[in-house]
Amino acid sequence: PGWSRRAQYGLFFGFVATVAAVIVGLFLLILSLAAPHSYAAVRGAARRLVSGLLGVNPIEVVRRVFPAYTT
Fold it and tell me: Which pTM does this prediction carry?
């Protein structure tokens, strides 16, 4: 980014946000593997989202976006 302090700060905060997201993601992954029953609400919300998408979009579109989805 050269000598621009604004660009350097933007790059730095981008790296910080990326590292924080990776850490949170790893934490959630480990937690979901250690206690899968605690993610029942998240799985239910994902099912409601997909079923809502089925009501709005044709099944071919949903399968293209979510290839693992089976009816």
Answer: 0.54
